[in-house]
Each structure stands twice: as C-alpha cells, then as structure tokens.
Design goal:
There is one protein chain. The chain has 2 domains: 30 residues; 210 residues, Muramoyl-pentapeptide Carboxypeptidase, domain 2, CATH 3.30.1380. Helix content is 28%, strand content 12%. The strands form 2 sheets. The chain has a 5-stranded mixed sheet, covered by helices on one side. It has a two-stranded antiparallel ribbon with strand order 1-3. Helix 3 crosses helix 6. The two termini are 27 Å apart.
C-alpha cells in the first residue's frame, strides 16, 4: 500500500491502531499469532464470518484438522486491503462474508488425503453432486499447495448490509441447483453456493443468471481495486498481490 501524503498525526493514529489490534488478542487470553498475521475480527466487526472448515458443513463432512476456532487470520497487508474493499462496498449497501482465510498446511494435506481415500463422501449430493471425489484432485478443485497457507488468499462472498444475519447453514440442496434450494448463505444469488465443485463456479460462467453475474462482478471489482485477483475457476477465491508478499507457508492452527 502507498502511504505518501499521510501527515504525521494520521500516521501515528494508524500505527497506534495496528499496535492495539496486534496486542488485543493477548489481553483476551487468545494465543499470539506469528509476526505479520492478524485476526480480521480484531480489525473490524463488520465483515461477516462463516469459517466453513471449523465446522462439519463443508465438502469433507468433518471439522478440518488445524481449525481449532472459527477465526479469519490473514497476513496484515492483505487484511488491511480487505478492509478497504469492505469500506467501498458499505457505501453501496453491501458487506463481505469470509468463508476461509489463512489455512494451515495440515489442512491442505488433509484435503489431498481425503480426496484419495475411499469413503468420506457424505456431502457429495451438496458440494460435488456430479463428480466422484477421487477426481477432485486431478480436476484442480483440490491442490497439494495453497496460497491460503501464506495468509494472502481469502474465500469470500457478498451479502446485503441490511440483511439480517441468521443461523449459519448446516445443510442445503446441490450447490449449483436453484438458488432457493441451496444452502442459505446470503439473500444474494452468487450463481452457486460456496465451495461448489461445478463448472458453474467459474467466475465468468455464462449459465448463471444475470443477477448472479452482477453480484460476482461487484465482488470482483471491489477486491481487485485494492490489490486482490480472482481465481477464474472459483468466484469466491481471491489472492492479494504485492511486491512484499511472503513466500513461506505456515502450519500454525487457526485459533
């Protein structure tokens, strides 16, 4: 981020804000994070959370190893950029909703092992109704590495700012089926549910409704304006780009 033109007073306030955000978790008894990482909830209460791998409603049907808490943890510059996108969306009447942020290496390995093992397909009818789980790795839906483990990738959706937050979804119809039958993630149609292993999840897929395309475009524009870029096969996946982006993957638990 470029900070030229910020006066000393504003710069001091920014520094104090960051220091408070980084030290506040310790005051609440939460474990300290590695240098450079922050909990998104310590920076803003506005962005909504549904950290899917910290509970059983995900494509594996189990809490994923390494997710000890439903927290969104990010590399600090990526988190700051996400806050900028949120500020823009709020002026338009929308709000971000994060599904996954930093992902421990043990979780990445668990996904790969799950895809290659027999059984474990209790969530097939929801998340990968037309595919056998053994093909998910070869098709690129699951990978042996992830930018999430660096702390610069985020899985994120969109909701209305005036939309009342209900209970987190625990079930749903097929993820690429009719909007009314899918998991209730938002009143906004994004074309598919989150983590849907389907061609319809591709950001520019022409088969989704005009309204869903508009919602995806709003999300993409807001995030790309602040330095994220979208993974074209998943409308929800964005990675932060910056010259100072680290290259080290981590395996500390989400806590």
């Amino acid at each position: 981020m470029h900070e030229r033109g910020i006066d000393m007073g504003a710069g001091t306030r920014v520094l104090v804000f960051v220091l408070v955000a980084l030290t506040a978790p310790c005051a609440r008894g939460e474990p300290l994070l590695p240098s450079g990482f922050v909990r998104l909830g310590d920076l803003t209460p506005t962005i909504r959370h549904d950290i899917r791998y910290a509970r059983e409603f995900n494509f594996t049907g189990q809490i994923v190893p390494g997710y000890d808490s439903a927290q969104c943890i990010l590399w600090h510059p990526a988190a700051k950029a996400l806050l900028q996108a949120q500020a823009r969306l709020e002026t338009e009447g929308f709000v971000l909703k994060v599904y996954d942020c930093y992902r421990p290496l043990r979780a990445v390995k668990a996904f790969a092992a799950w895809s290659k093992a027999s059984g474990g397909d209790t969530m097939k009818s929801i998340f990968f109704p037309d595919l056998d789980k053994s093909r998910l790795f070869a098709l690129g839906y699951i990978s042996s590495s992830s930018r999430h483990s660096i702390g610069i990738a985020v899985d994120v959706g969109l909701a209305r700012l005036d939309e009342r937050e209900g209970a987190l979804p625990e079930t749903g119809g097929r993820c690429d089926g009719p909007f009314e039958q899918r998991a209730k993630e938002s009143i906004l149609d994004m074309g598919t549910a989150y983590d849907c292993f389907s061609n319809r999840s591709a950001t520019a897929n022409p088969q989704i409704s005009a309204q869903a395309r508009a919602n995806r475009e709003r999300l993409r524009n807001a995030l790309e304006t602040v330095g994220f870029h979208n993974y074209s096969r998943e409308w929800w996946h964005f990675e932060f780009s910056d010259r100072s982006v680290p290259a080290i993957s981590h395996d500390f638990p989400v806590h």
